[in-house]
């Protein structure tokens, strides 16, 4: 990047998904234009790990939200394609960065859904304009959204006299890392309908703090609109106003609540589900559960920038010391964990940097030799010896001669506990716990870790703070060595390491776990040097403003160095997102072409899931 921004202009439509006519389906049929008049009265069914009767859609109320459903109700300005490293326009027609301003010009053919309230009143139906986007960004400002740290104002540069569209202007406040800002701005779901503001000032943030039973049905912009919800599921139907409406030749999309992964496997095997969003079924689990997936189900993998790992407790008497954490990282074999956890295509992580393999290659090229490569048990023994640990008859004791405390929190056995609500990833996490247990036993010998096979309420997978609090309440916090499976580093389709580091080291910082935001770490590329205090928040703030490539790479390397030297958590493996689609009765492009986000989310928008028979 240069001191002055080059002009960015993106309008290339992704062709690899066989958008519109001419795409070749996996079952040999042609996907593409299908008249809404020939729409078949069938439903595409997918499972969701959520209580659908209490799901609510207030964009400023985080309680009981279901992102899997919202991905259909609301459109973003653009989607990110991780394979080609570009944004694909959706609501936005184009965007440009020039001098100190980002301008976003909207498509003119999108409307807010027209939906009926419980009283029979019809709401929505307005065209989507620049004012809607500006209003949403203003509410983000009121909510202290991080991207507002680098912008000074958002305004309507052009509002159409009639119809939809217009142009939004976003003014920068000083230096800005455009790659970071584009992700923050373009990938937001546009969800703040004018309906929310009919009787209040647009500047009153409190107007969106509505109770779930007061804000009526959701008014969205996506290819499907709200139709109904019960304790069995949430039903959506094609939105007639959406540009892709005529590409959808089936009647409804049903998100059905499930209580266990057994229900998902049984449903897939019995043909009750037509696909899944994300599911990881290790071979060992499928064999133990007695389920087999039908040959008509096609496994689809999509790029992501995250994976599975282990959340360490920094308040544990030994894990308080970063050298002890480094010793554990040397004992941990991610390759062995991978073998037991998934049958999907994955890449193990031996270089603990907090980055995905692709990000590592991009930002640490030529620097890898300066980072510690983990997986060396001899080095683990050396580190433990430096800390005063001793080994007698191959059994390790701490500096006081006592045995190690290795209590861990794990997931329930998915082949036995079939009633509790579980995440699609929990079967894989369960087997990962066992793999880590075996590795610790092999190294420490008779120090058998106490694995607590319990899982809270099935809703805290991405909230280790909440997980920890449940154990501090019962006074066992200091004895817990690691929390499993409460660790998923990175996120689907993140475009920049800034977002990965911010999510993993700040948003999940968890003072209860004793990590960050100020850490002690030796200087970059000098692991034996004197430790210095580094405030992660300040480094991330600098990265958010880094508009020169050399400075950006330096800051990414510093943050990767912090992870490598302090080992706040263990990266187990990098994995793509895995979904299943049923080609019996449905057609879609070949798996190699399904490379943008979750296929069950993206394909209906482009007409690339097509019903092929009446059922």
TrEMBL record:
Residues 86-396 form the Solute-binding protein family domain. SUPFAM superfamilies: Periplasmic binding protein-like II (SSF53850). Pfam families: SBP_bac_5 (PF00496). One of its GO terms (biological process) is peptide transport. The keyword Signal applies. Keywords: Signal, Transport. One of its GO terms (molecular function) is peptide transmembrane transporter activity. Belongs to the bacterial solute-binding protein 5 family. This is Solute-binding protein family 5 domain-containing protein. The lineage of its organism: Archaea, Methanobacteriati, Methanobacteriota, Stenosarchaea group, Halobacteria.
């Amino acid at each position: 990047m240069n001191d002055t921004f080059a002009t960015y202009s993106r309008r290339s439509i992704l062709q690899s998904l066989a958008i519109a006519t001419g795409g070749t389906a996996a079952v040999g049929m042609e996907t593409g234009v299908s008249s809404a008049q020939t729409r078949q009265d069938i439903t595409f069914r997918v499972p969701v790990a959520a209580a659908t009767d209490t799901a609510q859609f207030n964009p400023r109320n985080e309680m009981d939200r279901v992102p899997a459903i919202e991905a259909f109700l609301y459109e973003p300005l653009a989607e990110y394609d991780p394979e080609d490293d570009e944004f694909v326009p959706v609501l936005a027609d184009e965007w440009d960065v020039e001098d100190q301003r980002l301008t976003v010009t909207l498509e003119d053919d999108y409307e807010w859904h027209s939906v009926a309230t419980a009283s029979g009143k019809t709401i929505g139906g307005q065209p989507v304009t620049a004012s809607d986007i500006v209003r949403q960004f203003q509410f983000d400002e009121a909510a202290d959204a991080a991207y507002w740290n680098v912008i000074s104002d958002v305004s309507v540069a052009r509002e159409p006299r009639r119809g939809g569209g217009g142009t939004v202007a976003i003014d920068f406040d000083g230096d800005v890392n455009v790659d970071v800002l584009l992700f923050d701005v373009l990938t937001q779901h546009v969800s703040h309908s004018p309906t929310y503001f009919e009787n209040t000032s647009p500047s009153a943030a409190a107007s969106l703090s509505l109770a779930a039973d007061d804000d009526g049905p959701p008014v969205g912009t996506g290819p499907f609109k709200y139709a109904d919800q019960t304790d069995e599921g949430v039903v959506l139907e094609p939105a007639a106003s959406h540009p892709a409406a005529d590409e959808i030749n089936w009647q409804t999309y049903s998100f059905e609540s499930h209580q266990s992964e057994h229900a998902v496997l049984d449903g897939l095997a019995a043909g009750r589900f037509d696909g899944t969003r994300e599911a990881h079924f290790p071979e060992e689990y499928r064999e133990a559960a007695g389920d087999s997936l039908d040959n008509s189900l096609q496994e689809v993998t999509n790029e992501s920038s995250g994976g599975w790992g282990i959340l360490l407790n920094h308040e544990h008497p030994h894990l308080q010391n970063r050298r002890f954490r480094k010793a554990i990282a040397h004992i941990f074999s991610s390759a062995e964990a991978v073998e037991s956890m998934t049958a999907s295509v994955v890449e193990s992580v031996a270089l603990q940097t907090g980055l995905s393999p692709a990000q590592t290659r991009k930002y640490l090229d030529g620097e890898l030799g300066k980072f510690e490569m983990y997986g060396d048990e001899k080095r683990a023994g050396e580190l433990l010896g430096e800390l005063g640990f001793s080994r007698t008859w191959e059994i390790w004791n701490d500096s006081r001669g006592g045995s190690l405390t290795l209590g861990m929190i794990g997931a329930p056995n998915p082949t036995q506990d079939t009633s509790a609500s579980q995440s699609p990833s929990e079967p894989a996490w369960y087997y990962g716990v066992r793999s880590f247990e075996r590795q610790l036993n092999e190294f420490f010998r008779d120090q058998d870790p106490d694995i607590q096979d319990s899982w809270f309420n099935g809703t805290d997978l991405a909230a280790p703070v909440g997980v920890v609090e449940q154990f501090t309440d019962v006074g066992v916090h200091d004895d817990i060595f690691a929390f499993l499976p409460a660790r998923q580093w990175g996120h689907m389709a993140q475009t920049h390491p800034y977002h990965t580091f911010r999510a993993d080291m700040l948003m999940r910082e968890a003072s209860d776990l004793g990590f960050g935001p100020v850490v002690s770490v030796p200087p970059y590329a000098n692991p034996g040097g004197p430790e210095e205090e580094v405030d992660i928040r300040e480094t991330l703030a600098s990265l958010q403003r880094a508009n020169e490539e050399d400075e950006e790479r330096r800051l990414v390397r510093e943050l990767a160095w912090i992870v490598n030297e302090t080992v706040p958590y263990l990266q187990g493996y990098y994995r793509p997102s895995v979904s299943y689609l049923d080609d019996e009765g449905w057609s879609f492009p070949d798996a190699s072409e399904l490379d943008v986000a979750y296929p069950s989310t993206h394909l209906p928008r482009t007409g690339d899931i097509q019903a092929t028979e009446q059922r």
